[in-house]
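Table 4 source record.
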Amino acid sequence: MGLVKGITDAIRTVVRSAEKPLFPVEIAMRIERLGIPEQKSMLVSVHTILNRLAKAGDVRKVGEKNDRWVWVTLGERLRAEEQQK
């Protein structure tokens, strides 16, 4: 049995536990270490899922070029909700 139940779960796990913002290629390499089988279009899948997670408010882009990803903490979510009120 793998450590995660699919690629979305793997991406959540990797980004949430990362010690620094990650590039999509770093995320792809790390999810393979979690037991997700290598795929021909892994990087495309990672980009697609990251964008979906961003729309849900789970992750956000950071960096000078907005090219790395970080997990959105509960505190950040709560502050964002308060600002929307």
